[in-house]
Design goal:
Largest sheet of chain A: 7 strands, mixed
CATH superfamily of chain A: Immunoglobulins
Order of helices and strands of chain B: EEEEEEEEEEE
Mean pLDDT of chain A: 92
CATH class of chain B: Mainly Beta
Shape of chain B: globular
Number of helices of chain B: 0
Strand content of chain A: over 45%
Helix content of chain B: under 10%
Mean pLDDT of chain B: 93
Distance between the termini of chain B: 38 Å
Distance between the termini of chain A: 36 Å
Radius of gyration of chain B: 14 Å
Oligomer: heterodimer
CATH superfamily of chain B: Immunoglobulins
CATH architecture of chain B: Sandwich
Largest interface: A-B, 32 and 31 residues
Helix content of chain A: under 10%
Number of domains of chain B: 1
Radius of gyration of chain A: 13 Å
Structural class of chain B: mainly beta
CATH class of chain A: Mainly Beta
Order of helices and strands of chain A: EEEEEEEEEEE
Number of strands of chain A: 11
CATH architecture of chain A: Sandwich
Structural class of chain A: mainly beta
Strand content of chain B: over 45%
Number of helices of chain A: 0
């Protein structure tokens, strides 16, 4: 089945220790997105890749970076996690010019910062 | 400033009855509206969408209504089933300029509980 996979599902890191979250997709979609969702809040877009073009949201902190080495994989790097970065991180994909912006989400990685 | 609002954090409905989930938005530039369903420990799953040029879209038990003048949309589920119990997110989309990608703005979600 075509899908969006996120690893790990749960990640614990220490305050200030860099961490990388991984996303892969078998849908062959051009676009990959990273969202942050805190408890009882709306998912918030951090950035996205359209093919190799990186698009950062204006209010995404510099602490968050991303890499997309190929169509299938995209990584979220948090350089120095703070306690406020504890959240669910969702990866999503969409087709180029897909109808209405429909996005396909992975199951998420829950990040805990100790 | 929330551009997409779901004012009801939770909703309980009896099995077989209609569930109505509401969503309000503030930005007239959105061109599509989508509903996503989320079960615990899973990512959001696309449910149904509507173009801003339409006022109704139906898919089986799910119907979305759009009132542009009121900047309001609603999702109707009829009849409601226990398996519909989940968190429902309303989202509004607009394309990034010159690109084939879309920006989705989400509401905070409404937790629907369908009681058998």
């Amino acid at each position: 089945d075509a899908m969006v996979i996120q690893n790990p599902r749960y990640q614990v890191t220490q305050f200030g220790k860099p961490v990388t979250l991984s996303c892969s997709q078998t849908l062959n979609h051009n676009v990959m997105y990273w969202y942050q969702q805190k408890s009882s809040q709306a998912p918030k877009l951090l950035f996205h890749y359209y093919d190799k073009d990186f698009n950062n949201e204006a209010d995404t902190p510099d602490n968050f970076q991303s890499r997309r080495p190929n169509t299938s994989f995209c990584f979220l790097d948090i350089r120095s996690p703070g306690l406020g970065d504890a959240a669910m991180y969702l990866c999503a994909t969409s087709r180029d010019r897909g109808t209405g912006g429909e996005q396909y989400f992975g199951p998420g990685t829950r990040l805990t910062v100790t | 400033d929330q551009q997409v609002k779901q004012n009801s954090p939770s909703l309980s409905v009896q099995e077989g009855r209609i569930s109505i989930l509401n969503c309000d938005y503030t930005n007239s530039m959105f061109d599509y509206f989508l509903w996503y369903k989320k079960y615990p420990a899973e990512g959001p799953t696309f449910l149904i969408s509507i173009s801003s040029i339409k006022d109704k879209n139906e898919d089986g038990r799910f119907t979305v209504f759009l009132n542009k003048s009121a900047k309001h949309l609603s999702l109707h589920i009829v009849p409601s089933q226990p398996g519909d119990s989940a968190v429902y997110f309303c989202a509004a989309s607009r394309p990034y300029s010159g690109a084939g990608s879309y920006q989705l703005t989400f509401g905070k979600g409404t937790k629907l509980s369908v009681i058998p």
